[in-house]
Amino acid sequence: MRNFLKKLATLFGVGLSPKAPGTVATVATIPLVFLLNWAGPIPYMIVTFLLLPVGILAAEIYEQDKGSHDSQEIVIDEVVGFLITMVWLPLTWQAILIGFVLFRLLDITKPLFVGYLDKKIQGGLGVMVDDVAAGMVASVIMQLLFTHTNWLGSQILVG
Fold it and tell me: Is 154 within the bounds of a domain?
């Protein structure tokens, strides 16, 4: 189980990418967003909710074995953060693009309380919490765009 969680922390090796592992992991999460969106809002929310404590545990175990905090190889936090960003949104290329850029921007720059959380909370929870916060901020912005503009385009029909 420990080995599985360490692999999950790196999204089965995606986090070992030599360049921009967080960005690569966010791109790798796009098919999961499509799959969960196709499954419906309840399965989407359940999987996202369950990935949070599992991700915290995976990050904690990875950190213990590596002896460092928030290694760039740990990318399960980007997966959960991007899933949060894209919840309850239409599957359009515009939504995916805007959500991707917005989440990565917030995750990288860590504005406001996102940066505070990143600095103050240690362990697996500390790895996950800033990306969850970035995903929540991005999700609120995306929901505002969805309900108040036509920037997110027309729904892609899946299935």
Answer: no
Q: How many domains does the chain have?
A: 1
Gyration radius of the chain over CA positions: 15
Say which residues have a Cβ less than 8 Å from residue 115's Cβ, sequence separation at least 6.
Answer: 130
- End-to-end, the C-alpha distance of the chain in Å comes to 34
Q: Are 84 and 137 in contact (CB under 8 A)?
A: no
pLDDT, tens only, 116-144? 887 888 899 999 999 999 999 999 999 99
Confirm if 14 and 75 have CB atoms less than 8 A apart: yes
- Helix residue spans in the chain (DSSP H): 2-9, 21-39, 41-66, 76-85, 93-109, 113-120, 123-148
User: Which residues constitute the domain of residue 93?
Assistant: 2-148
Model confidence pLDDT, tens digit, residues 24-54? 999 999 999 999 999 999 999 999 999 999 9
Contact predicate 151/98, CB 8 Å = yes
In a domain, 48, yes or no: yes
Q: CA-to-CA distance for 126 and 117, rounded, in angstroms?
A: 7
Amino acid at 59: A
Side-chain half-sphere of 135: how many Cα atoms within 13 Å? 22
Nearest to 55 by CA among 30, 81, 31, 35: 81
